[in-house]
Design a protein that fits this description.
The complex is a heterodimer of chains A (about 575) and B (about 575). With about 575 residues, chain A is an alpha+beta fold. Chain A contains 13 helices and 23 strands. Chain A is elongated and about 105 Å long. The N terminus of chain A is likely disordered. Chain B has about 575 residues and is an alpha+beta fold. In chain B, a hairpin with a 7-residue loop joins strand 6 and strand 7. Classes of the chains: A alpha+beta (about 575), B alpha+beta (about 575).
């Protein structure tokens, strides 16, 4: 069906001047790393609203029915679907039993590009399978659960309403921020009607601010011993509720990434914690999904910004298990290579303390190897570290040199209902944290590459070898070695220590099992008997790039089948010769 | 709106005890002891609900029942609201939670007893009626119905967990190894298996009690001890994954024990616990909470431990805040006076329980008591036989002290609660001596039915006192001073004539219990020249403490401004102020 639509294009390409290889698009040479002629065309230089994201998912599902499914894991406060795009090769293996990589984004309303990175990943995987053998085997072996936004209401607010680059961080469920008994009654006011919330200033010889000599749009502090010329009055707004405070009870305010039930602490320890852990329906929808999918072995939750590859713990006392840190370090260090300008960091140590964060819940409560990338760094403006400057700043410089003054709202006179004639101006909401269009696809691809590397390193069990030795009296000894052929163990130490995921099963079929053993030392043939149900040997863990050996004494001569069944490492089976 | 409820003592001295503030309720006869709707004995889920429904029918103007959630076992979690008059859900309220710890069915019976006593005492123009006109009592009488139901089913087994299936032993199977009644006595009790590899021995003084052998003292173990039953799944663990999953009494967030037995996968995993957490969100007027369950801060009040968190600290609190300590101490003193409860067993730790959640996470004044335990028997006098038998260990550190106390009381008052060791034949232990025995399920937590009535009466008295002690703000000493033509200074003393502060020191840090919002509404031709039209006032201690507020208003003589002070947890009051007088 969709192939039919593709066919004429390919014929056209073949018939044209032999410009390039057969799979190049008509009239062009295919660039590597991008699908030459995608079934679903998506521009990766803009930010999609909730409806359009759903539509992209729907089109991918329609164009790639064997690779992509769209569903919903729950509803937001404002009743929007929390879309899930499942990507795998649905024709190979049982998708529910493949080791899974969970990817989400946009938990903070203003941190929007995580959604595009996640969506790009789904699109790339669909469109590039059949072209890149590595992607094919990835989709044969793995399943990707991609939730582009776990905060659709907040995203919609940021896309549609007047906001700053930093607002709202909260979701939009009303809260009484100022404790006056009324919710969300004093938010920003877009005084000049441009759909941006920028700064207010007033010319004032007693003010302590001046114009920068490098860029007159930029306000800098007057020297301590010299007069200024302007007073800064905060973000656009006025006192809507007459309590003498300006913009003090905006839509929301809680922090969706402090609401998770791992190391949760109330407001006096952790601002934004909200009423109680899991009080938000979006938190619960994700948790429910993750708990229902024990095959999830890796996770990524995209944030912005700062160019960080973050791992937990969010809090000093919540130490990660040393065995797990070794795996994290390998992946994190690889990330620094894939993502120039990004640093592999620990949340509490290198950033700040977080109680009740999502990544800590995923690792702490579910034992899942989890990273959180802080997308975008101003390193990417000029491919170098930005040094602080006295009269300039990187965002203003990049705006002049790369965006030709598009990113900053020039100071504009407006009439303020209380302050009188003032000016408003400053950074547009989709600047400084969100990424300029011409850099967005590159950021998406690099971050995807890191996350695919992580996905490839999830555990993968293989029945390596089966040896059958005949014993007297119609008995056979069957010895099988099962390997985990990737970096991450089938159970992280956190998982193992807390009995989160059941043991791995290694089962024998094809004969009556008399006794079953875990072989502790294959070289010396030292083994421990499993007394109960010996046909299905329970193995606590198969370490990364490691293996376990089991053996059975069986009545019969075979052939025998050995099945390795790991919640996080997948299922594999092999027959004896 | 009048905030006068009970005639407060004319002079309130600092440090005045809670009880002396509310003398009315302590007089005998204020609480009607007769005519309440409670039927004798313990109620299963259906019967309990029916009793409350009947109470609500009879007192339609006072009682309203609301369904909050459904347990995995299909039982409703519901609240019973008791209160009349205006703004029932907007004024200071007490929340009573019972039975989160499932085997503690006595809590539910006490809650029913309190509700029925208050309802019948409120018939006519009584002090209780006036109290319930000004304050609200919410009751969640059966927080863990799935577990409580086990008290009404055969075989009888104490269980703390609800009916949500769980993989307790993490073997990939759900609920595959529960208990069995091996001797057919209708009870699931303790089972001991004689085996030299076992670590347990029978206590020498009270052989029905088992204790761990102390190898260092040369004691040789003789028994394995486990719950009565067989190893259904053949994993050499006995009854390790019984039907059901989450212990509601340990599914709250303060001190939550991740991966603990019955803790669920996360705090508020159980719909029952979530319904209670959400009840706070939906009822910002809950000022204080009383939890009937195994945690206890009324016989021995919570104490502040220095170095465990002060106002500027951003670390989790591990003891009551210093500023709140005295109020807890006073309420506990009053409780002991009313109930004569003493020699309480060591309270259960604060681990995911509803009591610690109420204070440490919701910021409410929070009190808890098990209501009843096997009381300590009076010591024999010098002529009598020494009743207390010598324990095998050091008396003070005797780990069996509480069991001994129970045993002694049961011997004298309820001998059927003691199950002497009885041999059974056990398929998993051929050739070994296996016996069942111990305490009768539910006996240590739930008093004999004949005691329920007197418990409910004294608990009603305490609850009435808590209601009367809720904060109550009043505009005291309202003063208008003319400063010049059309210029007036208004001074108000905002006083809390209740007992409890309008919010605790911790409540101020938690953010949700609200401050007192004071608004001065100026009309046309008037404007506020000094002071704020709207301001928030932080905690005002009770017992008549006050906060002074002033405004300067410019307006025509004889015109009126309106002054309103309001907090869901602290109360509300409105006064009109006429601008008048000449300088």
């Amino acid at each position: 069906m969709n192939r039919v639509r593709i066919l004429p294009v390919m014929l056209l390409a073949a018939a044209a001047t032999p410009l390039a290889a057969q799979d190049s698009p008509a009239g062009a040479l295919a660039a590597l790393g991008s699908p030459p002629d995608p079934r679903v065309n998506v521009a990766w230089n803009r930010y999609y609203d909730h409806a359009t994201m759903g539509e992209i998912g729907r089109r991918l599902e329609e164009a790639w029915p064997d690779r992509c499914r769209l569903s919903s894991i729950g509803k937001s406060v404002e009743n929007r679907d929390i879309w899930l795009i499942t990507v795998t090769n649905f024709n190979v293996g049982n998708p529910e039993r493949k080791p899974a990589m969970y990817i989400d984004g946009n938990i903070h309303s203003n941190e929007i590009q995580g959604s595009e990175i996640a969506l790009y990943t789904a699109w790339y995987l669909c469109e590039m399978a059949d072209r890149v053998p590595w992607v094919d085997s990835l989709l044969d072996e793995r399943v990707f659960y991609i939730v582009p936004t776990i905060n659709p209401d907040g995203r919609e607010h940021f896309l549609r309403q007047p906001d700053t680059p930093h607002s709202p961080r909260s979701g939009v469920q009303p809260r009484d921020d100022d404790g006056d008994g009324v919710m969300d009654e004093d938010g920003f006011d877009d005084l000049n009607g441009d759909n941006f919330i920028t700064l207010m200033r007033r010319a004032d010889p007693r003010g302590r601010w001046r114009l920068s000599p490098e860029d007159p749009r930029l306000m800098i502090r007057a020297p301590a011993d010299a007069p200024g010329s302007y007073e800064l009055l905060g973000y656009e707004g006025f006192d809507n509720d007459g309590d003498g405070l300006v913009n003090e009870d905006r839509p929301g305010y809680y922090d969706p990434n402090r609401n998770w039930p791992w190391n949760w602490q109330p407001q006096y320890v952790q601002g934004g914690a909200d009423y109680y852990p899991t009080s938000l329906p979006e938190t619960r929808a994700v948790m429910k999904f993750v708990i229902a999918h024990p095959n999830i072995a890796g996770a990524q939750s995209y944030h912005n910004n700062g160019g960080m590859i973050l791992r937990g713990p969010g809090q000093e006392d919540d130490a990660y298990q040393p065995e797990d840190v070794r795996m994290y370090d390998v992946i994190g260090k690889k990330g620094e290579e894939i993502l120039p300008g990004y640093k592999y960091m620990i949340v509490w140590k290198d950033l700040y303390t977080v109680w009740g964060g999502e990544l800590d819940w995923l690792y702490g409560a579910r034992g899942i190897v989890t990273f959180s990338n802080e997308l975008w760094t101003d390193f990417n403006y000029f491919s170098r570290e930005v040094e602080p400057e006295k009269y300039d700043d990187a965002d203003y410089r990049a705006d002049r040199l790369l965006l030709f003054n598009e990113a900053i709202v020039p100071w504009t006179p407006v009439q303020h209902p209380v302050y009188g004639p003032i000016e408003v101006g400053g950074v547009k909401k989709q600047y400084t944290r969100a990424i300029p269009g011409f850099l967005l696809q590159a950021e998406a691809h690099r971050n995807m590459a890191f996350t695919l590397y992580q996905a490839d390193q999830m555990p993968l069990v293989r029945v390596d070898s089966i040896a059958v030795r005949k014993l007297d009296g119609g008995l056979s000894e069957v010895t099988a070695t099962v390997s985990n052929v990737r970096l991450v163990s089938t159970h992280t130490a956190q998982d193992l220590n807390n009995h989160i995921t059941r043991p791995d099963y290694i089962s024998l079929e094809g004969g009556e099992v008399v006794a079953g053993f875990v072989v502790d030392d294959p070289l010396q043939n030292l083994a421990t008997e499993q007394k109960r149900n010996p046909a299905r040997i329970l193995v606590d863990n198969i370490p990364g790039m490691g293996s376990v050996t089991v053996k059975w004494i069986v009545r019969g001569n075979g052939p025998f089948t050995v099945i390795a069944d790991s919640e996080k490492g997948g299922v594999d089976r092999a027959d004896s010769q | 709106m009048s905030t006068k409820m009970i005639p407060a003592s004319p002079v309130v001295l600092p440090g005045t005890a809670l009880r002396s503030l509310v003398p009315l309720f302590l007089l005998t006869g204020v609480l009607t002891a007769s005519g309440h709707a409670q039927s004798p004995g313990y109620h299963d889920a259906a019967a309990l609900r029916k009793s409350f429904d009947r109470l609500a029918e009879r007192h339609g103007d006072l009682i309203r029942i609301t369904d909050l959630a459904e347990s995995p076992g299909g039982h409703a979690i519901y609240s019973v609201r008791i209160g009349s008059g205006d703004g029932i859900d907007e004024r200071p309220a007490l929340l009573l939670i019972a039975n989160a710890s499932g085997p503690h069915v006595a809590g539910s019976e006490t809650a029913l007893g309190i509700a029925s006593r208050l309802a019948s005492s409120a018939e006519g123009d009584t002090a209780i009626r006036r109290l319930l006109d000004q304050t609200t009592l919410y009751i969640i009488p059966r927080a863990n119905p799935d577990a409580a139901e086990a008290m009404f089913q055969q075989p009888l087994r104490e269980r703390t967990w609800n009916a949500m299936p769980a993989d307790d032993d993490s073997d990939g199977e759900l609920d595959e190894d529960g208990a069995e009644d091996l001797n057919g006595d209708g009870l699931i009790s303790t089972m001991r298996v004689e085996d030299p590899a076992g670590m347990w021995i029978a206590d020498s003084a009270d052989p029905v009690l088992m204790r761990k052998a102390d190898a260092a003292r040369g004691q040789t173990g003789r028994y394995f001890v486990m719950v009565e039953g067989v190893d259904d799944d053949g994993d050499e663990e006995w009854n390790e994954d019984p039907p059901g999953g989450i212990d509601i009494g340990h599914n709250f967030s303060y001190g939550y024990e991740y991966f603990g037995a019955g803790a669920g996968l996360y705090p508020f995993h159980a719909p029952e616990a979530r319904a209670i957490a959400q009840f706070y969100v939906d009822h910002p007027n809950i000022t204080a909470v009383y939890v009937l369950g195994p945690q206890n801060n009324l016989v021995k009040a919570w104490e502040h431990k220095s170095g465990t968190g002060s106002s500027g600290d951003r670390m989790p609190l591990t003891s009551v805040m210093e500023e709140d300590e005295a109020w807890y101490e006073e309420v506990a003193r009053s409780y002991r006076e009313i109930t004569d409860n003493k020699d309480a067993p060591e309270p259960e730790a604060l681990e995911g329980d509803p009591l610690s959640f109420a204070y440490y996470h919701m910021g409410r004044w929070a009190f808890g008591s098990p209501v009843w335990w096997p009381p300590v028997m009076e010591k024999a006098d010098s002529t009598g036989e020494e009743k207390k038998k010598p324990s095998s260990g050091d008396d003070k550190d005797d780990p069996l002290a509480e069991d001994r106390q129970a045993l002694e009381w049961f011997r004298a008052n309820r001998p059927d609660a003691i199950l002497e060791w009885t041999p059974v034949s056990h398929p998993d232990f051929p050739g070994k001596v296996v016996e069942v025995g111990g305490f009768r399920p539910f006996a240590t937590l739930n008093p004999p039915t004949e005691l329920l009535d007197s418990i409910a009466t004294e608990q009603t008295e305490f609850v009435s006192e808590l209601l009367a002690g809720l904060p109550r703000i009043e505009m005291r000493a309202l003063k208008v001073e003319p400063l010049g033509d059309r210029v007036y200074r208004i001074t108000a003393e905002l006083a809390n004539t209740g007992y409890l502060p309008t919010r605790s020191a911790l409540g101020a840090r938690v953010r949700w219990p609200r401050q007192v919002r004071v608004e001065l509404e100026a009309g046309s031709g008037q404007h506020i020249s000094g002071g704020r039209a709207i301001q928030l006032v932080d905690a005002i201690d009770g017992s008549g403490r006050s906060r002074e507020l002033t405004w300067v208003v410019v307006g025509p003589p004889g015109s009126t401004v309106t002054l309103t002070a309001k907090s869901p947890v602290g109360g509300s009051t409105t006064r009109n102020v006429t601008l008048r007088g000449t300088p």
